[in-house]
Amino acid sequence: MDAIAVVLGRPRELSLQHLLLADAPDCLTVDIEWSAISTGTERLLYEGRMPQFPGMGYPLVPGYEAVGRVAQAAPHSGFRKGERVFVPGAARCFGEVKSLFGAAASRLSVPPQRVVAIDEVTGERGVLLALAATAYHALSIGGDGRAECVVGHGVLGRLLARLIIAMGGDPPVVWESNPERADGAIGYRVIDPTQDDKRDYRLIFDASGDAGLLDSLIARLAPRGEIILAGFYSAPLTFSYPPAFMREAAIRVAAEWKHEDLIAVRNLIDTGRLSLDGLITHHADATSAESAYRTAFDDPSCLKMVLDWRAAR
């Protein structure tokens, strides 16, 4: 079998290519319906700024947010043909083309333990499961009802705010300095940080990915307050020690989500406690991937771009 895939040959060199799928008898074969473009991780890969991870390099297939249907499944896999699933990358099926991420393709072979079955009605919104799981994981390490402030009103920030409410917390304040991204709040308020006079936040979640914000966030903490870094940062993070010392500030890093986080957010979605509405703003056919990536990276009105692969097979 083969697949059509987005391939980054090197930084800023993106194309669609036909790739052979390596034989993987213990893997599921999934025909992808939709994949999403990450303006964090994939942008770093596109620009050549991604910190080195084991298994990373060029050429590569990007992407870790895909939804499709099982085309082939071994009897012991726990999945059935035709079942709709979320695939968080890690396909590892394209031979010499690296697929540490690997979800931006028309067809994938993927280990069944990486895949999560989703409800039919979730549809294309299922591509958001990875970001929802990222938010859930960050909350699980420090979201004991004290979460008061979220920095950034992109998709991750919105999901953090929605999950805080869904998990029984008080609605947080969300900071957003870009007026084009201030709309779309559900049950919480969004303000420009320059308009916020509060200086005693006990817990701040940073979903901005901005490595230069730590000093300004520390200045807003209450004594023994905590900052949880929920985004991904390509540049070194530094901060001035005296203000952090005076507050006995804590800074915690939220690592990658786990499989159980995917299951938890899927259950919240299925029971109606977590809404994914309004987070996908742009769509493109997979054959227009090059222009779609430019829009995702350069258009501030684009929260989440989804590629449609259904006509690409």
TrEMBL record:
Residue span(s) of domain Alcohol dehydrogenase-like N-terminal: 28-118
Coiled coil: none
Keywords, sorted A to Z: Oxidoreductase
Matches recorded under InterPro entries: ADH-like_N (IPR013154), BchC (IPR005903), GroES-like_sf (IPR011032), NAD(P)-bd_dom_sf (IPR036291)
Listed Pfam families: ADH_N
Name of protein: Chlorophyll synthesis pathway protein BchC
Originating organism: Bradyrhizobium aeschynomenes
Gene that this polypeptide is encoded by: bchC
